[in-house]
Structure formats: C-alpha cells, structure tokens
Amino acid sequence: MHEPLEAPRTPSGTGFTLRVPDEEDAWHWHRVFDHPEVMEFHGGATAELSVYQELTARQRRHHAEHGFCLYSMVAADGPAAGAVLGFTGAQPWPHAWGPAGEIEIGWRLGRAYWGLGYATRAAHAALDAVRAAGVRNVVAMVAAGNERSVAVTRRLGMRHAETFRTPSGREGYCFRLEL
C-alpha cells in the first residue's frame, strides 16, 4: 500500500522516544491504559492483555512493511524516564465503517501523563515518519466529547472534515491533514 521512501526509522522528540512496540510492550500498554478515564472513549473497560498482544504484533508487521506504526512512547528523562507512557503513530483505519483504506493517526497515554504535551509532540514526530513513508494525507477519528484529543488535532493543524456515527450509534468526528 504505502512503501517507505527510506529505511524505516523510529522518531523521537523532546522528553520521549518512540519505538516499534516489542512483545513486552503489550503488557506495558495493558497496564498503563488500565484506568477508566483512559478507556472512556475506547469502550469504557480495560481491554484484555491478548488485545494488546495482537495490536503490538500488528504494529511490528506494519512498520516492517510500511515504515510507520503505532509506536510505544517512552519517557526519555525526568522521574518517569524509561517508562512506557502510551502510544502514538499511524496505521490503516482498522474498521469496515469510516475512512476505510485511509491512514489514521492516533494516540493514547496513561492518565498520569495527560496534560504534559506528550501527545502533540509525539504525534508531530510520528507524522514525520508517516510523511517519510510517502503518505500524503492522514485522518484522526475522535469520539464526540473527547475534548483533549480534539485539542491535539487542532494543534497538529488538522481540520474537521465530518461528523459521523459509529455502528453502535456513538457520535464522532473525522479530522484530516494533508502532509
């Protein structure tokens, strides 16, 4: 689908590094996302470890094939140095509904790391990898009411393209960005 224009690399930024998730990161994601506020817009309940095992395996394959993925975000300094903060990056939209075939940028951080600027800085770094892979447009699908993620899309320069309903009837927004 999208072939890398250069050898795949791992982006980084101020205060964090992004790495292709390894097998152990499934456990880290499961642990760091085990909070009701983190999961509020992702089904409400903590996902089973097996969900993250499949997701991290898919991201490794996607990075090997296309040069980008949902990266593990790791604190580079400060009291959390070395801790997995969450993920950010891009992948093909994984559902039959919505922007099928398009590349979605996304992020999810542990609750303790909200409001510190990580999501926006890491998303900018991930967009560099997506751009280097030859992708020219990305979308962000955000649940209605998720004002923190809407704010990140605005800081990235994305524009609101449409309002949609999920198959379960929940409202959301599709934001777009030309790279």
UniProtKB/TrEMBL annotation:
GO MF term list: acyltransferase activity, transferring groups other than amino-acyl groups
Taxonomic superkingdom: Bacteria
Keywords for this protein: Transferase
Pfam families on file: Acetyltransf_3 (PF13302)
All residue ranges annotated as the N-acetyltransferase domain in the record: 16-179
Coiled coil location: none
InterPro entries documented for this protein: Acyl_CoA_acyltransferase, GNAT_dom, N-acetyltransferase
PROSITE patterns xref list: GNAT (PS51186)
Transmembrane segments: none
The protein's name in its UniProt record: N-acetyltransferase
